[in-house]
Amino acid sequence: MEDYLIGVGRKLKSIRKKKNLRLSEVAQLAKVSTGLVSKIENGRTIPSLPVLISIVSALDEEMSVFFKGLDINKKQSYYVVRSGEREQMEREKSSGFHYELIFSRRLFSIGFEVVLLTLDPGATREKSTTDAFECKYVIKGEVSYVIDKEKVVLHKGDTLFFDGRIPHYPENHSKEEASMLVTYFFLDSSNT
Questions:
Q1: Closest by alpha carbon to 172, among 125, 115, 108?
Q2: What is the pLDDT of residue 24?
Q3: pLDDT tens figures, 43-53
Q4: Most buried among 8, 29, 122, 167, by the most CB within 10 A?
């Protein structure tokens, strides 16, 4: 089951939107907080199995149907994601933030996800947290990261690594687009 957990949030969000349900409706039916459902859908946390079952049930989906299409070939010794196969994803509703999923996988007890994040000129958002360690590599432009109360300015070629459980947010105060390769190393919730 661990191999499936990285893509679960995107699938939950897709089903919820197809059924025209609000986050609060799903949360109430699943008996969890709206914030938790939002964090799961946006890839900011990986749900425990009981929470996942509750949310899938709240969406009136069968578990076997839910996991269909998420399975992978464990005998494969490599993975290739072609440029045309990458998908746009929504992490939060912040103007000027564009996420493109490059790769996600769970190996042993570590889940990781790699995305391309592009920030429009002037883009910023509210502070958020992620149940993951985050590694940001600036490909183009200049980005400021506010982590707790400290501000770090990153330029092309710079790398930032931090504990995503600390409230943080990026800002692009320049007049040019900025892009970063972002890797999330998800924490095993049983060890935190």
A1: 125
A2: 92
A3: 777 788 788 88
A4: 8
